[in-house]
Amino acid sequence: MATENTGGSPVEYIQHHLTNLHVGEGFWQLNIDTLVFSVLLGALIVFVAMRIGSRLRAETPNGLQNAAEGVLEFVDEQIRDSFGSKAPKIIAPLALTILLWVWLMNFMDLIPVDLLPAVASGLGIEYLKIVPTTDLNTTLAMALFVFALTIYYSIKVKGLGGYIKMFLFHPFGKFLIPINVVMTAIDELAKPISLALRLFGNMFAGELVFLLIALLTLGASISASLLIWFPLQVVLDMAWIAFHILVITLQAFIFMVLTIVYLGMAHIQDDH
Amino acid sequence: MSISITLVAQLIAFVAMIWLVNKYLWAPLSALMEARRKKIADGLSASERGKHELKLAQERSTELLREAKDKANDIIAQANTRSNQILEEARENAKTEAERIVAQANAEIDREVNRAKEELRAQVADVAATGAERILKREVTDKDHESAISDLIARI
Prior knowledge:
Structural class of chain A: mainly alpha
Helix content of chain B: over 70%
Order of helices and strands of chain A: HEEHHHHHHH
Number of strands of chain A: 2
Radius of gyration of chain B: 61 Å
Number of helices of chain B: 2
Oligomer: heterodimer
Strand order of the largest sheet of chain A: 1-2
């Protein structure tokens, strides 16, 4: 394990790993690593998509196109499950983008935690946090966009009056309007926040567990105790990677499905 | 770890990604898949239609075959009737012709016989007259002559 870039205490090691490469301070802090990695992964998606698109075959789809068609069908199925056949046109690309992009960003979590930061420190970059979804800004940005779409479609389907009515009369009928407003507001706000925090929390925790596993032999010198700690570390790391492959996939899937479900709920006519 | 301008940047990136994914992945691929779905559905319905048409054509051909057979049978029956008729007519004609020929021949024979008789009669009369002249050695009067000849003719 690359430990030469910190050499300090475990706390310093972890803090170092949880600090973004950034410019600016406070609100104007721009996390360059988050941006660069998310844009790179986005570019990868677009590149592969263009490759598939450049040799699209209706009769004899090749391997990559088959895979893409499989993903597409899967996403389409999820949408049809909650929308029926009349989903707005943005839903499908939105869901597909979330699934692919979030999964790829989560996947960065499986790259050994010290590998890229060590390379970066060799290049003179002090901090590097390679998993964009462990940055709350990323997950919240996506969740807020979904939230904005939810409001837009709620108003479009129910009308502005219908949307306000949902706040006024929703859980308890017309005699408890103030409570209704508070309850519905919490209900609505909980959607984007839970969406953002679920993904962020899972990825952050996963990253943290990788860091803790890395700590097992942090700064260890060649000694007898290494004979115990090193195999243990390898076994734990492999176990956590195996588990985390499921987690990153599941989290990407959950983010997509919840997006579809929230937007589907926005399209349900008010039954009160 | 705080909310910052990064969020705005990521928001822009996210919207751009949705647009790009739609443009380069979703739109072309789903159009292709939709076209293929339609093509397969069309193909299946066409094959269904083809099967139906084949069945109809088979029924029609059986029908035509049956009709043709019936017609052929009719024609054969008609032809048989007609040939019998023709044979009958021919037989009838031949019979009539034969009878006619026989009758003609009989008439001819009768006529010949009569003519021969007449000739013979005339010759016999001459011979008788000559014979009688020689026997009598005298000129028989016309009256005697006449009576002798009439006598002879009556005896023949």
